[in-house]
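Write out the bound-state structure for heme C.
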Amino acid sequence: MPNTSVTARLALSLAGLLSLPAASWAAGTPPAAASSVMESSFPVPSTAQLQAGAKVAQTCAACHGLDGNATSAEFPKLAGQHADYIIKQLHDYRIAKGAKKPARVNAIMNGMAAALTDDQIRDVALYYSRQTFKPGVAFADKKDLKLGASIWMAGIPDRAVPACVSCHGPGGAGMPSRYPRIGGQWQGYLEAELQMFRNDRRTNSPEMHDIASRMTDKQIAAVADYAAGLRAPSELPR
Ligand code: HEC
Ligand code: HEC
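---
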């Protein structure tokens, strides 16, 4: 979609102008200003940690790619994702003490995560977070993108859905240790996750459950498509 980067630029400049009203907040705590900077809250990983992570990643590569840029919408891209978020997800795929099922249910990933030690989880997360992310594309029609853009920037006021931009940032880069990067992720993956938050198959985020449960299928598909075309500021073509 040739207009994608234009849309992203527009989103960026809009985000600069908008000061998001606290009243549109229905769920969760009001976020700090979303950061577009791709820093991690982790200290710089050691070479040994990155090497150990690369070794673990060999068992993930068939689906997520060795460089974390999964080539099919079934598999999320992990490249450039915040390490803390990857760590949280891998723990959520395991069964917590006293729980009957994992907070995030997926047959493949429940098995993969159960087989990893805590150190391996940290190392593979550090490794993937340092890989260069290859941005994605939006491929819906213009009308769909317009709806998606308005949900991203302004939420859905009459359903008390907050603006995605306020947590995930204008380019969708999220914020280390708080909000995952979703800009440039596969549309099909983002749509599937929003559906799972809504129908409680993914129960590891009360705030995203709240948000998704107030959205229609059409709104979910549209905002997922818009997000898939977003680029973090550092990834915009110059
Ligand atoms: C056979 C394919 C396959 C393999 C191998 C695999 N994964 Fe996954 N992974 C998936 C699928 C499918 C999902 C999406 C599952 C869902 O919807 O919860 C996923 C999701 C994830 C997520 C969540 C991403 C997000 O954006 O929330 C992380 C993190 C992850 N995998 C890490 C790993 C790591 C680390 C390994 C290797 C140790 C690995 N995966 C191996 C298929 C795979
Ligand atoms: C209050 C802050 C907040 C707002 C607003 C918000 N999100 Fe999220 N979102 C989160 C957090 C936190 C997570 C990580 C949840 C977890 O730990 O699994 C997340 C995760 C996600 C994921 C899963 C990402 C992945 O890799 O699996 C998607 C998709 C998503 N959000 C889409 C949206 C959309 C679309 C909107 C706007 C309609 C939105 N979010 C608004 C905080 C927010």
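---
The chain has a mean pLDDT of 85.
The longest helix spans residues 4-17.
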